Amino acid sequence: MSQERRYSFEFFPTKTEAGHEKLLTVARQLAGYNPDFFSCTYGAGGSTRDRTLNTVLQLDGEVKVPTAPHLSCVGDSKAELRNLLNTYRDAGIRRIVALRGDLPSGMGMASGELRHASDLVEFIRAETGGHFHIEVAAYPEMHPQARNFEDDLRHFAAKMQAGANSAITQYFFNADSYFHFVERARKLGVEQPIVPGIMPITNYSKLARFSDACGAELPRWVRKQLEAYGDDLESIQAFGEQVVTQMCEKLLDGGAPGLHFYTLNQAEPSLAIWNNLGLPR
Questions:
Q1: Is 135 among the residues known to form the active site?
Q2: Quick one: pLDDT band at residue 22, thresholds 50, 70, 90?
Q3: Phi-psi category of 69—alpha, beta or left, where left has phi over 0 and alpha has psi -120 to 50?
Q4: Are 243 and 1 in contact (CB under 8 A)?
Q5: Mean pLDDT across the chain, nearest whole number?
Q6: What is the separation of C-alpha 136 from the centre of its chain, rounded to a whole number of angstroms?
Q7: What is the residue-wise DSSP string for 138-206?
Q8: Any idea of the CA torsion for 70, 37, 35, 252, to the nearest 10 degrees?
Q9: Residues 274, 261: Cα–Cα separation, whole Å
Q10: Which of 10, 135, 141, 241 does the annotation list as catalytic?
């Protein structure tokens, strides 16, 4: 794995002006920790295209942290993707997170001209050469729509071989699942960095619903302890901070090339873990 570790934070574009102002406040706070980059998500079927674009340009231009837009091919034509790529390139954006993306409800299987993330990576390379550092997604516990683990690994390897520079994983709470995935990917010839995605635990019911939907395993012992706290948010957050900090220690001790924090547009939960780990500023 890479000897140079990198640390990053992810945001989602907001629907309201008040939410956007909060996002910028959080981003400025996190910028003080000198992350390598921010990333900004992209709604199903490109539903947040304009908000993602505006947020990325503001974070990169005003907050002064290199910012990577998520870009998905579901629901977008090649012409639309080409225009977005040109806009980002002209604005000086140098990193993109390339995803297949989720189908919005009611779309069925209609999914634009590009069907897979590997197709999108190839398209970005064909259109822009080496301008962008391309991130792709990795699923240590298997993509929820994959037929099996072997098939999912082959799809991941295909994305990397199509021209991706590195990968960011779906979040997980079992470090061994990450190490197993990396070991298997290396055997398929993947040499690029695979950075663990880290989800702070702050709300049990939301985390349980999201984990069930995206295929991230919430270990039974963690689930039962969180259930036992009921509505005691202070205890949930203290326990969650301990669990995730210990997992991050194991990941870094085991050679993970950095951490990517899913902030949910909040600073404190990610920074608590950051400070517990004694990460550089």
A1: no
A2: very high
A3: beta
A4: no
A5: 92
A6: 9
A7: E-TT--TT-S-HHHHHHHHHHHHHTT--EEEEEE-S-HHHHHHHHHHHHHTT--S-EEEEE-----HHH
A8: 70
A9: 9
A10: 10
- pLDDT over threshold 80, residue 31: yes
Question: Would you call 183 exposed, middle or buried from its count of C-beta atoms within 10 A (0-12, 13-18, 19+)?
Answer: exposed
Written as six digits, the tokens of 153 are 């690994």
- Give CA–CA dist 263/123, Å, rounded: 29
Tokens of 254: 């085991």
Whole-Å CA distances, 194 to 6, 154, 181:
11, 15, 10
Distances (CA, A) of 27 to 9, 16, 23, 270: 9, 16, 6, 12
Cα separation, 163 vs 230, whole angstroms:
46
Round to whole Å and give the CA distance between 247 and 219.
12
- Of the pLDDT bands very low, low, confident and very high (cuts 50, 70, 90), residue 38 is very high
Both tokens assigned to 213: 């939907």
